[in-house]
Amino acid sequence: MKSGVFIVLFGQQSFEQALDTAKAAGLQSVEIGTGAYPGTSHVNAQAVVNDPAAIARIRDAVDSRGLAISALSCHGNPLHPDKAIAKAHHDDFVATVQLAEKLGVDTVITFSGCPGDSENSKYPNWVTCPWPEDFLTILEWQWNEVAIPYWKEQSAFCRKHGVRVAIESHPGFLVYNTETALRLRREAGDNIGVNFDPSHLFWQGMDPIECVKALGDSIYHVHAKDTKLDGRNIALNGVLDTKHYGDILNRSFVFRTVGYGHDEEFWKDLVSVLRLVGYEGTISIEHEDGIMSVNEGFTKAAKFLNSVILHESAGEMWWA
User: Fold this and answer.
1) Which domain of life is it from (predicted)?
2) Which among 112, 134, 229, 313 counts the fewest CB atoms within 10 Å?
3) How many CB atoms lie within 10 A of CB 315?
4) Strand partners, 253
5) What is the pLDDT of residue 239?
6) Residue 27 contacts residue 4 (beta carbons within 8 Å)
7) Are 313 and 28 in contact (CB under 8 A)?
8) How far apart are the first and last CA of the chain?
9) Which of 47, 50, 112 is nearest to 86 (CA)?
10) Tell me: the pLDDT tens digits for 186-231?
């Protein structure tokens, strides 16, 4: 298993500098943003996908540092009711898949997307309860008329290019938990799996260890990001929280650097159970800690994650 980082964290650095930062921290792989929400500060998939020289430069920059690319990431909402947004995110996804094939990268990460409530909608509509029954009507339309047809088509497209899709479960999108992730995989294609991010599961009151067991070999990539739950604020307001992420004292949860929401024992257990279900890929640091600076959060996360993976690997060798 490898430790890595989602290098959009270093958007103010050049691509080569970001790779050097990852290498200096003792990481083995990088996840690269290529469009949509992650932006194009390092690689713009649409701009380079048909440029062999640019693709060679990307490959050489990574290879020369002894690193690997764990995934290309273009998290977006290709189901957005605003057709211009949907098209932009879809085009980024298509170019990212094509670029992944040319780079020899087998995994592309994105969101499932979320439509509106009808063909006439302007904004996405995330359904969170079954009553009044209008909500179930919306949900059925979103899945059966929009999401499943779209992802069936993308599954076939990705298969032609030898690429698999890792959907990141996130509230606000149709795929946000275990059963919705497995439903999309079951109904749209078995090359559609999961980018497993425990921080989004903690936030909803889920147990990431049990989720790994249920998801099994559908886990294609993993993020290392933690969540700190505020018991008092949850007791008062629950976990659905629309306050700004900067309002840390009053929020029910905030994202933290690994080890600052849940202890080392949890992260060791997570690495172990990932191995037990057959995952041998990268655990990629995603820094969204509102308390620590980029440098502090990344440095602490890299040290912590490398220690956890080394400990778990040593334990595996001992048992072997």
Assistant:
1) Bacteria
2) 134
3) 14
4) 229
5) 96
6) yes
7) no
8) 16
9) 112
10) 999 999 999 999 999 999 999 999 999 999 999 999 999 999 999 9
